[in-house]
Each structure stands twice: as structure tokens, then as C-alpha cells.
Amino acid sequence: MTAPSSRLLAVLLACVVTAACGSSAPKAPTAPETAGTETSSPTPPSSTIGATVSGLVASGASTSMAGAIPMGASGLGGVTISVSGTSLRVTSDGGGHFTLTGVPSGTIRLQFSGGANGEIEIDDVDEHERITLVVHASGSGMEIDVEEREGGPESQLEGKIASVNAGAHTFVINGITVSVPGTASIAHGSRSLTFSALVVGARVHVKGSKSGSTITATRIEVQQAGGPGPGNGNGNGNGNGNDGEDNGDDNGEDNPGAAQDVEFTGTVTGLGGACPALTFSAASRSVTTSKSTNFLTACTAIHNGLKVEVKGKAAGKGPVAATRIKADD
Fold it and tell me: In whole angstroms, what is the distance from residue 217 CA to residue 198 CA?
């Protein structure tokens, strides 16, 4: 082999060695690709904190025996609804419907102004609970016609009974069927009642579990007695003793003239008497107080022009014997 050829071979061998060495050089370590080691994770879906209160500000109270105003009914638009003590505020739409979200738990007060004025109180609001209301203006205050609650510890429904099926042990409030098993408790205050007390026009508060459009009741509190009327015709005289089931025990409870629980908000006028025995008018109702009244606002602080919340008992539209008085601040 000639000298040039030898030199050329040496150069080629050097290149081969250099390439081999380069390929065998250690690489810089890389982080292992292990699942689940990412420092950021997708943002969880947001959830509404607090309860949701929605409903209808009805244009007037129903004159029917059942007293139910369906959610599809016409209502008052432009009414401002706010949660007392918070910045939550909404205005009802043209049909009178409204929705408030993020409502705090506990006892809340909804204030209405503009077209319908007054206030209502809702007790024991649970976080994430869904509350549906039908309300209307009454005098200088607001009244709840229908109240339905879901998402809390148990489903609740309050309103007047529209129809009764004694054979099936069911009744209907605002399109919702309430099934009353034999294990359900039925009472008015501390007095136990039977199914025959559940008549058309009676205002009741139901607690139980809901499936679809049916609530299976565990407890029913009769708040206001009803009476015979349209829709109570199941053909067997239900509401008049259920073929003798009551033996007269509940006659006093079914008597529309018996004292019933009432609650309203109004402005004090015509104040008279001396503490603790006061007399005054509020929300077109006559009110009397006594030493048995729970004055959450001092009795001596009650004066004409003061807006107060009144809870008590009354027979029909007669004088209200107040059990609790509180200034509406």
C-alpha cells in the first residue's frame, strides 16, 4: 500500500473511532415520566355555595278553596327581592319569577319592595337546599302560599290541600302528590290527628322524602283547618269524619273557628295598653300581647310606626294573641 493510501486509511479510522466515542458519550439525565407527578391539576367543577331560593311573586291571592297558585301563573314583574343582612338582591322578571343563589344557611328574611312590599322569614335553611316559593302581597305584608324545599336533610312542602284521595291515603298541594303511610305522624301542635283531618283547604306542612312528583310523608303538621269544598269529592264523604274514623276527637281541630298559628309583618298603629299587655293593629290585624308574649324587641320599644314581625294565634280573621314580637330592622 502506498504512503498516501496509508494516510487516507488512518484518517478514516480516526473518524470511525471519533464517531463511536461520540455515540457512547453519556447523556444528561432526564426526569422520569411518572404518572401523577404533575404539579398542576384541572380545576374542579365549580359548585354553588349556599342555598337557592326561587319562586313567584303572585299578582294576588287565590280565591279558590285550595288556595294554590301554580308556578306558571302570572305574577308581578319589577319587584326587588333581597336577603336581609347580605348584598344578595334580584328583581322579578316580567312573569313575576325570581331566583337567588348563594343564600346563607340558618334563618333568613326575604324583603320585597316595589309593587309588592313586605318581608317573610324562612327558618333552618340548609346549605345547598333548593327552596321554591309562591308569595303574594297581603295588606302591608307578604304571605307564603306555597313553599317547597329539597336538598336539605329531608324534603318539605307547605301549602293548602287542593284534593284528597282517602282510599289511596294521598292528597295534592300545588300539583305535588303527598303519600301518607300509616307510619306518618299527623298533628296540630301537640295534638295527634288522623288522616281525616287532611281535608281540602287545610294548610299543612309536610316533611318526608321525595321521588319524582310524590313526597312520602313522615310528619304532617296541620297549620290551619280546612273545610268541605271543590276537589274533596272522592265520593265517600272524606273530611266529614272519614266514615266515623275520628269519633269526634278532631272536631275541634277541623273547626275553622278554632285558633290557628299565624305569622305576618306590619306597621304598628293605634297602640294602646301598658307593658306587657299591649293592643295595636298591624297588617290590618288586631294584635294583643301579654306576659306570655316573647318580646324579642323590648316591650317598651314598641311604638306607632314601628314595623314588627308578629307570630301568634287567631281564630279566622279575629284578634291575634301574640306569642312573639320582633322589630323588623
Answer: 13
